[in-house]
Amino acid sequence: MYICSVQKHFFMDNLISFRKADICAGDNVVVYGLDMDVAPGERVYIVGKVGTGKTSIIRTITAENAISGGHGEVCGFTLEGIRSRDIPRLRRKLGVVFQDFQLLMDRSVRDNLDFVLRATGWKDRKAADARIDEVLEAVGMETKAHKMPHQLSGGEQQRIAIARAILNSPELILADEPTGNLDGETASGILELLDKLGKEKGTAIIMVTHNLDIVERYPGRVFVCSGERCEEQA
């Protein structure tokens, strides 16, 4: 598909640009014709009932799912036809926080974070250790580096998951129901942390949630998934 130079410049100004993109889950299209732009530093919510395509959009942004039609661009990478060797390069620009934490349970907090740094090309041991200390301090977990994940509370595990997500100073954090498994007080702490990181670092945040109280407490742009569409709320 030909894209004029004006459109190319427009896409490059955004971290994310979708144009009439069909979003898939497996072989099935779950969201038709998605139009979405996300600029640096923005907070964007994707809301809707279970099964309406919210998580599929996140998986498309990370190039886990392919788009079956239209155009998608994330952090300078065109999604349609993206080469396998470019997917890790794209993902280094993203930080992802999951509802179920997805920590490696057989290694310590420090080793969880070190695993990510090694996988993304960090070779300087001193620099890697310093970066781990920095992100643990940023999430208030600097005294927990030696702990195993099972020794931490749910809220502490999620803080480590956020530390992992920001290791490579991502341009964009994707948070998929990050407070879904946490009690109200702990969830508030996680939301405050994400809000602080967004404001201090200028990191864009896309959060999938079904909790509209979060949207009211931390305002941002809202996209609603319903009826095989996902459209921005006026």
Keywords for this structure?
Rossmann fold, 10 strands, four-stranded antiparallel sheet, 8 helices, 234 residues, disordered N terminus
SSE diagram, text form:
Layout: H1 5-12, E1 16-25, E2 28-38, E3 43-48, H2 54-61, E4 67-74, E5 77-78, H3 87-91, E6 94-98, H4 109-119, H5 125-138, H6 154-165, E7 172-176, H7 184-201, E8 204-208, H8 212-217, E9 221-226, E10 229-232
Parallel strand pairs: 3-8, 3-9, 6-7, 7-8
Antiparallel strand pairs: 1-2, 1-4, 4-5, 9-10
Helix pairs in contact: 5-6, 6-7
CATH class: Alpha Beta
- Count of alpha/pi helices: 8
Main beta sheet strand tally, sense and closure: 6 strands, mixed
Question: What's the domain count?
Answer: 1
Report the radius of gyration as a whole number of Å.
18 Å
Low-confidence stretches: 1-12
Q: State the helicity in percent bands.
A: 25-40%
In CATH, the architecture is 3-Layer(aba) Sandwich
Q: Tell me the structural class.
A: alpha/beta
Shape assignment: globular
CATH topology: Rossmann fold
Annotation, overall tally of beta strands? 10
**How would you write the strand order of the largest sheet?**
6-7-8-3-9-10
- The overall pLDDT average reads 90
CATH superfamily: P-loop containing nucleotide triphosphate hydrolases
Strand content: 25-35%
The rounded distance between the terminal residues' Cα atoms is: 30 Å
The topology string of helices and strands comes to HEEEHEEHEHHHEHEHEE
